[in-house]
């Protein structure tokens, strides 16, 4: 509640930060009243090959959604992230890499990054990759992931990164949808003392029908592990790169040329290819990185997100490098080999800005002081949180323990679709309330609406929408503009619907309450219930499935799956394990259900629609709050499920 603790910005903090509250308020006002002027100025955070003369050109009109920013400008992303820093920062570390175990690390300066990116871009060109081609990346968290991304941008190729935890089927689906011409991967990744068979998964994915758009696979030898090799298709990263020229002419890209595709889950159907374009995205990533983290020269910045998620794109690679920052890439996990690993990495590299997820914070919090034992974390200056609502207890622990009560926490709300942070505190400007993402960033116009789309005023809860465009907004769903309009702009006319609910308090602060659609957020990973259900029903013994989210202490949400078996099949501990494993294999470990509830039947309306609302209540043990059940075809199904749930609990 808003009446709870407030952490005001101290005068010292306001003084040494980039922005004060007064500056925020006046700049915010300008950004809304005159976006042309505001973003026209702010677009200069980048170097443009051809300056833009137009700034904003966007419409949310039903049936005609069209979003363009800086539309006649031309630029190159790799030039903005590397070349322009060379004169002053050539020897500064651009990428700091920390491996899975503390003995593995590396430093790559801007000069070195330049050479590596140019050489790899030339290698891509040699493979016939040119402007507009889609390149799929399935990479470990090593500097090569960033090198590959930047090399794509240098020559105008569009990258589509698939998170290294996804299954061969998930990779294949994304390759087919995006028509990827080339795949970049590694032999294996490392995570928490285990290896991840990246190349093996790609090999398997490429056996699927429809993946023959892929002409070659470039393999970075990371662990040196044994992998299969297909001579006519596979290429060794080192071999194709080493003799390449160390210069590569950057391609001038129009601001609205595609930069990358990133698949994300929705409430229905297969994952959607979110398309971001070049100019607006990079302006927005650069601006938000700078002001949200209060980035100043000399900062060492660490974002723990994987490069396979949007946070890894905007705030591990593009935002920091566009600002000439030093960004740390970590291949491991926060609690390996010791519980205090995260804090140790902070000390080892003198990290000043730390950006992580509530699920990691809760996992550390569960270990108590062990998570910080023997570390000082005295270099830290700003802490960030992203991916899911941060509960006030976790916020407090993060603030007290990791930040030693010295560092403001920026609880950043945004989405794959938004490209960058939309609602967030700014360190020197915003008084903090634990659990609130606080106020909109420049140019962002949030509103709360009721289910009919009426805008709600004052302190109230509702559906979170955006009333106008910002530069980092997605432009379309790759190859399916109709689905784009349908998904985001058809629920409420003339507004972008986020899929989230939120509450606004009397200070105008936003408190995100979570998804209001059938999307789950498990450990900050977004997943559609429909995807998990379709994996479940593809098991030969499963007849029907319905998936709902339940609160989970560490993961935020856990996956609760109601499963009905085919006639003649019966539940057993073996089948329980087998069905869980099946989903893991179909999608990836992150989608493994926490609980299977063998159900003889599911509650349905007379027209056969599954009543999820009821299933959610039963799963969370709130069967006394089922609401209206008058449309149920067979009420006895519900009584049975309630009883079974009590047995499971
Ligand atoms: O529900 C919101 C939640 O994560 C969703 C977006 O997921 P994804 O596209 O995977 O991007 C995650 C990283 C930006 C949102 O719709 N979410 C993200 N950040 C927060 C959050 N919920 C509450 N507070 C946040 N800070």
Task: Provide the fold topology.
Blueprint: H1 11-16, H2 21-33, H3 35-42, E1 56-59, E2 66-69, E3 74-75, H4 77-81, H5 86-89, E4 93-98, E5 105-109, H6 110-126, E6 134-138, H7 143-155, E7 158-161, H8 168-178, E8 182-186, E9 189-191, E10 194-196, H9 198-205, E11 216-220, E12 234-236, H10 237-242, E13 253-254, E14 258-264, E15 272-277, H11 278-292, E16 300-303, H12 310-322, E17 326-330, H13 341-349, E18 353-356, H14 358-365, E19 382-386, H15 392-402, E20 409-412, E21 446-449, E22 455-456, E23 460-466, E24 476-477, H16 481-489, E25 496-504, E26 510-515, E27 519-522, E28 525-528, H17 529-537, E29 542-552, E30 556-565, H18 573-586, E31 595-598, H19 612-619, H20 635-648
Helix pairs in contact: 2-3, 6-7, 8-9, 11-12, 14-15
The structure holds adenosine-5'-monophosphate-propyl ester.
Adenosine-5'-monophosphate-propyl ester (PRX) binds at residues 264, 310-311, 385-389, 411-416, 437, 498-500, 512, 514-515, 521, 526.
Family: Belongs to the ATP-dependent AMP-binding enzyme family.
Modified residues (N6-acetyllysine): 609
InterPro entries: Ac_CoA_lig, ACAS_N, AMP-bd_C, AMP-bd_C_sf, AMP-binding_CS, AMP-dep_synth/lig_dom, ANL_N_sf
